[in-house]
Specification:
This protein has about 290 residues and is an alpha/beta fold. Helix content is about 35%, strand content about 20%. The protein has 11 helices and 13 strands. The longest helix has 16 residues, at about 240-255.
């Protein structure tokens, strides 16, 4: 059964009272803390011995398929599987949730960490912490083939689709003259809305748009929107040990070329300096 934060707190108080450990020291026998294998410090997971991971799949090429599918893969899944192996959890347990609630769900202890192609944003940092960046994203304006819409400047009066609670939806609302911005629960839903004529255009992450064009056809990328967003993995704000462990493992995967290999595999390009350099989460370093 899942361990609640209340029981974790009670356990820590009891440990302090009986002198089994002291604050700030590593505990070798703390009734559930999981020692990392390649990172600094220890951390606890919601369920002892299990790393629970929230996802919002499918979202190709980052999340291909769905949890439980033996072929569940994608850039973020391959990358996080490698991270999980390094921190001592070679079989992370993925579970789908809604992107609009994933940050709250993670903060409230439903997941230890989430893998949801999420941009590091100040407003999200008020709910969760983020690991260091692992991807730099741009947005894309996706339209039907032959559309008169050639750029975001042509969206005045148009109906624009986007995934709920995403930066694509925020861009459509804040930076275009769309008459209506329709939000959809998942990214593929916003793309389907375009192909079925429910919307005139869709704004979505550029690799997702390119993947849809290549695999589905009938649409084209009218414009790549330079937003230079950085993706990180959301972690509960009181789980610094897990965040630090993931950051250490991620840096090792940058150093040994794994991140570059995955970038080439899924995006046919090398990672930009913002990812390859190993710079820490810019928001955390500025706090």
């Amino acid at each position: 059964m899942r361990r609640t934060r209340l029981w974790v707190i009670i356990g820590l108080i009891a440990t302090a009272l009986i002198g089994a450990g002291c604050g700030g020291d590593d505990d070798d026998d703390d009734g559930g803390a999981t020692e990392t294998t390649s990172a600094s410090g220890d951390f606890e997971t919601i369920e002892e011995g299990v790393l629970t991971v929230g996802t919002d799949a499918p979202y190709p090429p980052f999340l291909i398929g769905t949890p439980g599918d033996p072929n569940f893969t994608g850039y973020e899944i391959e990358l996080f599987n490698a991270i999980a192996e390094k921190i001592g959890y070679p079989d992370p347990q993925y579970s789908n949730t809604n992107f609009a609630t994933v940050f709250r769900d993670t903060a409230n202890g439903l997941f230890d960490i989430s893998v949801v192609s999420s941009t590091i944003l100040p407003e999200r940092e008020r709910v969760v912490d983020f690991t260091d960046p692992h991807y730099e994203a741009q947005q894309a304006l996706l339209v039907p083939e032959g559309s008169d819409i050639a750029s975001v400047d042509d969206l005045d009066g148009a109906i624009v689709g986007a995934q709920d609670a995403t930066t694509g939806e925020a861009y459509a609302n804040d930076k275009t003259g769309a008459s209506e911005v329709r939000g959809f629960p998942q990214g593929p839903d916003a793309i389907t809305a375009l192909t079925t004529g429910q919307v005139d255009a869709t704004i979505i992450d550029q690799p997702v748009a390119v993947d849809a064009v290549e695999k589905q056809g009938g649409m084209e990328v009218a414009e790549e929107i330079q937003t230079n967003e950085l993706y990180g993995f959301p972690v509960a704000p009181d789980n610094d040990g897990l965040r630090e462990a993931v950051n250490t493992a991620l840096q090792e995967l940058k150093d040994d070329g794994t991140v570059e290999e995955l970038y080439e595999k899924y995006f046919s390009t090398a990672p930009p300096e913002s990812v390859a350099s190993g710079d820490p989460n810019p928001l955390l370093t500025n706090n």
